Amino acid sequence: MPPPHVLAFRGQDRAERRPSTRAAGWTHFAFTSLASLAAVVFAASRVERVRLLEALVVPGTFLFANLVEYLVHRGPMHRRKKLLPILYERHTLRHHRFFTREAMACESAADFPIVLFPPVMILVVLGGVALPVALLLFAVATPNTGWLFVATAMAYFLTYEWLHFAYHLPERSFLAQSRLVRALRRRHALHHDLGRMAHENFNITFPICDWLFGTLGQQRNDDRDG
Ligand SMILES: [Zn+2]
Ligand SMILES: [Zn+2]
């Protein structure tokens, strides 16, 4: 059972949110999944006869996305900036108050929008990041490199959304059962400790940059299992 201050915040948030229904939660999840998958499949379908050097765009994009995930989460999502204060408000003031370390799970599908990015974010990632970089790659490299960048970037975005979603499902749910998801979920639960959230475990997916920059938060002796 979530603590009283979390229950109170959740009640207020649900009352102010329109619509705050299970159907709206599932629609949001379906839109994020299908729109991202459509972008991945379309971009991948444009790739023809990849050369080895072109294929290196895939691991390169993966590492670049891991760095972006880390920097945006450590920066504007946890430190209020003049540019895009909405990131701090949605993440630190809302997501981290709705879900705390001892209350990580959604109570119903109506809570999914507090985990997922707003649907418009897909357009921001596609139009603001994936397409400009792809156009640059079309111009200075080859079409294959551009399409591989779009496919990998959108696949990474969806991986972020699905993993974060799995961490905030009830522990008994099917998606939260695998060993990998349980291990990553424990890391994210440590990040949901209010005393630690601004200091540790900024990677939501794979903790590569946390390891690289020395912000990997570990379970301590006085910790309960998250
Ligand atoms: Zn979270
Ligand atoms: Zn956070």
TrEMBL record:
Annotated transmembrane regions: 23-44, 50-72, 120-141, 147-169
Gene Ontology terms describing biological process: lipid biosynthetic process
Molecular function per GO: iron ion binding; oxidoreductase activity
InterPro entries: Fatty_acid_hydroxylase
UniProt entry keywords in alphabetical sequence: Membrane, Transmembrane, Transmembrane helix
Pfam families found in the cross-reference section: FA_hydroxylase (PF04116)
Protein's UniProt keywords contain Transmembrane helix: yes
Fatty acid hydroxylase domain ranges (all copies): 61-215
This protein's record includes keyword Lyase: no
Name assigned to this protein: Sterol desaturase family protein
Organism: Polyangium jinanense
